[in-house]
Amino acid sequence: MNRQKYPADQCLSERNGHLFIEDCDTLKLVEDFGSPLFVVSEQQLRNNYRQYKRAFSQHWPNGQVDILPANKANWNTAVRTILSQEGAGADIYSEGELYSALACNVRRDLISVNGGGKSDDMLRRCIQAGVRITVEDLDEPERINRIAATLNTSAKIRFRVKPDFPNLWKKTDFAAESTSIDMGIQLYKSGIPAQYLEELGKQVLQMKNVELTGLHFHGGRHHNSLWYWRGLMKRYAQLVVHLCQAWGGYQPKELDIGGGFATERDPHSKLGIREDTVLTWFTYPLELALYSLSVSARYRVMSALIEKALIKIPGRKRAPTIEDYAEAAVGTFRDTLIRSGLDISNVRLQVEPGRGFYGNTGIHLSSVRKFKRQTQPLQMNWVLTDTTYFFMSGGVYEHNLHEFCVANKVDQPAKHIADVVGQSCYADRILPLVKVPDIAEGDVIAFLDMGAYQEVSAANFNALPRPGVVLVNGDQAEWIKLPETIEDVYRRDRIPERLRQNDGLNPVTPFSQEARHA
Ligand SMILES: *Cc1c(COP(=O)(O)O)cnc(C)c1O
Fold first, then answer.
1. Handedness of CA 386, 391, 394, 396 (dihedral sign)
2. How confident is the model at residue 317 (pLDDT cuts 50, 70, 90)?
3. Backbone dihedral region of 159: left (phi > 0), alpha (psi from -120 to 50 degrees) or beta?
4. How far is the CA of 80 from the centre of ligand 1 (A)?
5. pLDDT 10s digits, 448-486
6. More exposed terminus of the chain, fewer Cβ within 10 Å: N or C?
7. Which of 52, 56, 71, 72 should be mutated for ligand 1, with most atoms under 8 A from CB?
8. Separation of 259 CA from ligand 1 center, angstroms?
């Protein structure tokens, strides 16, 4: 068992060859709840909140620190309720996310509603709820001012700013485009560029029904390194200082630095990078040259290549810890602000982690249906599972390579190179060319760091019902989201009356009809 893989303070451990999450045997979870299955650890969730709060507070001794986890990464209402008990706020993007934040008693002054192109209805809802509106559009303050006036109240807003980053010229591994981090941030739709903010701020400070409580910036996870965070926070702090001066000595009450911190086993981009470089520059030209050989010789060379060059070895290099991120980000931010003479003694610092916050709180369990082996014409092995990468689409968009283990064989040595694949008709290579121990039907694969962006992005391709979510607390396990049934998959379908003529079939209940005929 690799100690480094499951540090002591985290929810995963190995006991007698089985993967445990808290005090629950993952094999027993599959037995009791079925598979595929998402599992969330309550203790890990609470620990993570406290760890973020502690780490960031340590480097912001002057004022309060608020943790506003991004709801989009996991908007499950039980998860949200646990975080509300801990005192967490919420970064909200849509009306649906606002719904869960309000339903789960998130403190109103710790809700930040992001997103461009908000409708009047949405703005009205935000003002009535008394949440922070994080402004992205130039005409938004004026609209908020008008709506707040009709409601006879005052709205609290902040600007989402978009500084430029001449210091971040290295390549982003976040944006799909192959560009610098600076360009990656500029190409993203959100935020108001510095050039507009001097004028806009002066207008807003004159508005009767709007209070500008502070500034917000979210750059996202363009890189998992500490230099990225230092570079990001330096330019953001300089813009904050510049704006405060330009607005005649404006004093912010809160400064939000957004999210973008990686989980330690950081699965992000680990597929894309290797595939781009290895395949495009090396494998493909070589393969083309091999077409002069016989079929068997060509496939033999390719088999060797698969074993030697294309194999994926997930997770050797760890991303920084939260403590390291907090020191790099907040240390730089605070120093730059103080050196420029800004008084931050009563300023609240706000942080909006998503992936780094939820990532290691969840795993995904899936049963093996078959170990499919072939030696001719090409040596290939496939672990056929009962899940699909459509249930973790977030990871597909982000080219994730998740760390994993065989949950009932954690202590067994890796022997084979195989694709761990999903059941959809796509190639569905969840883990392409990884090393696995001997595999048999009924083994359980545990995909790690599935707590952020995965379950919430599950899709129904191939009419596959989406898995449910179980919450674990000690040795207790309960549903917090029920699995879909096939009927659920078709629940929103409607067949117009005119199409139903004389076929005698009721397509939404075929299985039960079949049963009746039998
Ligand atoms: C997505 C998002 C976050 C969280 O980003 P992570 O990379 O998951 O940490 C925080 N704030 C805003 C405004 C976001 O859009």
1. positive
2. confident
3. beta
4. 16
5. 999 999 999 999 999 999 999 999 999 999 999 999 999
6. C
7. 72
8. 5
Indicate which residue's Cα is closest to atom 8 of ligand 1: 354
Residue type at 273 in one-letter notation: I
- Asked if residue 451 lies in contact with residue 40, where contact means CB atoms within 8 angstroms, the answer is yes
pLDDT at residue 309 is higher than 80: no
CA of 260 to the centre of ligand 1 (A): 6
Q: Where does ligand 1 bind, in terms of residues with CB under 6 Å?
A: 70, 72-73, 91, 114, 218, 220-221, 258-261, 352-356
Q: Which residue has the higher pLDDT, 442 or 283?
A: 442
- Which of 56, 74, 91 for a ligand 1 pocket mutation test, highest count of atoms within 8 Å of Cβ? 91
Q: Which pLDDT value is given to residue 518? A: 47
Ligand 1 center to residue 69 CA distance, Å?
8
Percent of the chain topping pLDDT 90: 80
Ligand 1 centroid–CA 184 distance in Å is: 15
8 A C-beta contact, residue 94 and residue 115: yes
Over residues 170-222, the pLDDT tens digits come to 999 876 667 999 999 999 999 999 999 999 999 999 999 999 999 999 999 99
Q: To which residue do tokens 């050797």 refer?
A: 316
Task: Tell me the pLDDT tens digit for each residue of 114-138.
Answer: 999 999 999 999 999 999 999 999 9
Q: Which domains does the chain have, with CATH numbers?
A: 12-41+361-489 (2.40.37.10), 50-268+313-353 (3.20.20.10), 273-308 (no CATH), 494-518 (no CATH)
Q: What is the whole-number distance in angstroms between the Cα of residue 451 and the centre of ligand 1?
A: 14
Q: What is the pLDDT of residues 37-75, one digit of tens each?
A: 999 999 999 999 999 999 999 999 989 999 999 999 999
Beta strands, E only, 90-178: 90-92, 111-113, 132-135, 155-162
Which residues lie across from 404 on neighbouring strands?
A: 447
Amino acid, single-letter form, for residue 272: G
